[in-house]
Amino acid sequence: MPIKIALSILCENPQRKTGITTAYHEFVARSLKLYSDLRWLIFAGPNQEWHVHDPRVEVVRDFPANDQLKRRLLADHFQVPAVARARGADMMLSTGFVPVRKCLPTVMHVLSLQHLDQSNKLGAVRTFYRRWMMRYSWPKADLVITNSRFAAAQILSVFPQFKNHLLQAYEGLQHEQFHTAVAPGEAERLKDSIGVGPGYFLWLSNFYAYKQADRLLAGYALLDAQTRRRHPLVMVGADWEGHLLACQDQARASGIADDVKFLGWVGDEQLAPLYRHALAHCLPSREETFGRTVIESMACGTPVIVNDIPIMHEVTEGQALIVDFNQAAQVAQALKRMAGDAALRTRFREGGLARAQQFSFEKFTSERIGAIERFVSARRAA
User: Fold this and answer.
1) Which of 37, 215, 230, 290 is exposed most, by the fewest CB atoms within 10 A?
2) How many C-beta atoms surround the C-beta of residue 156 within 10 A?
3) 328 falls in which pLDDT band (50, 70, 90)?
4) Residues contacting 30, CB < 8 A, separation 6+
5) What gap in Å lies between CA 214 and CA 249, rounded to an integer?
């Protein structure tokens, strides 16, 4: 059954890459291998990355991405849907919204509900927009896809009417990139690049307020100087509304600036080596619907220390050290325990590797495309 899906990735800011970029590239690439009758119409900004080249993929670069927010919103809500219909798409695939000018059936990915909690500090304009979307736009979605049982429960608590058209399907994992095999000279090249050798604690995310980098820094600052020298804290990620600068100030004020390395963003080719040579990866977020870096780290054989929130219990399934990041002393104790207990690291390494094997982009793709095919078939038969 031939299907043409229109996908807009304009909501991504080319200057601040997130996991959405990776997920959609993998989604499209894997779907082309799994479904011979599938066609794609991709809406990407002139300066956005798009690496999937295939005769069945048409890329439209007539509209700006999220580095031009107002123009992007105008495009996604009014222009893109009309162009998609004119070019023969059967449906739209969006992230977190249904176009105001809904010209096609819309499948909406919901990957964040941060705006429900004001402490996440998204900003007044963004919070207003997202809440407006939830009130007026979301109810028009024909199919809703989210990435965890926790997120699905959150969505249904607000929109119980989604019960019969909500799909929960976990995130995928690029096993060909994230694995335990160390390339010759990899540790030396990484040390030359970041300035520290293996055995560091790793943070990897944009510096959003809800990621709580400050809580990790507060716990790390309580470690003794010898432990910090042996195990520096490497923080990888781009700024968001000054939170990176605030963390740099915090490190200086706490007297740990020499032990914390702020790398900014790095290329995708460096991610797996960064995981592989870390003592542990730390994710102190107070809000996640999945937490992709957790399974990436696990797949690289690196233990994870995560915040005590429901989604982290769901994703890690007991294969992580879980701590209340609101308690700096507990964070310091967890970091010191991970550094000093080889048996604990081995346990989480082996358990994490097994858990990571349960996630794949083949499963990610087949679950989502399967749901879309069923929807299109039912619509055509009606």
Assistant:
1) 37
2) 16
3) very high
4) 172, 361, 362, 364, 365
5) 10
Domains of the chain as residue ranges with CATH = 3-172+360-381 (3.40.50.2000), 186-356 (3.40.50.2000)
Q: How many CB atoms lie within 10 A of CB 253?
A: 11
Written as six digits, the tokens of 366 are 């087949």
Return the pLDDT at 126: 65
Q: How far apart are the first and last CA of the chain?
A: 16
Q: Which of residues 159 and 304 earns the better pLDDT score?
A: 304
Helix (H, G, I), strand (E, B) or coil at 101: coil
pLDDT tens, residue by residue, 190-202: 999 999 999 999 9
Give the separation between CA 197 and CA 258, rounded to whole angstroms: 14
- Calpha distance 239→286 (Å, rounded): 18
Tokens of 73: 């919103």
How far is residue 242's CA from residue 317's CA, in Å, rounded to a whole number?
A: 34
- CA–CA separation, 288 vs 290, rounded Å? 5
Category of 262 on φ-ψ map: left (φ > 0), alpha (ψ -120 to 50) or beta: beta
User: Measured between alpha carbons, how far is 225 from 271 in angstroms, rounded to an integer?
Assistant: 27
Q: What are the angstrom distances between the C-alpha of 98 and each of 88, 134, 261, 374? A: 19, 9, 40, 20
CA dihedral for 63, 68, 129, 205, sign (positive or negative)? positive
Residue 302 identity (one-letter amino acid)? T
DSSP string, 132-186: HIIIIIGGG-SEEEES-HHHHHHHHHH-GGGGGGEEE------TTTSSSPPPTTH
Q: How many CB atoms lie within 10 A of CB 86?
A: 9
In the DSSP assignment, the letter for residue 325 is T
Task: Report which secondary-structure segment, H or E, holds 71.
Answer: helix 69-74
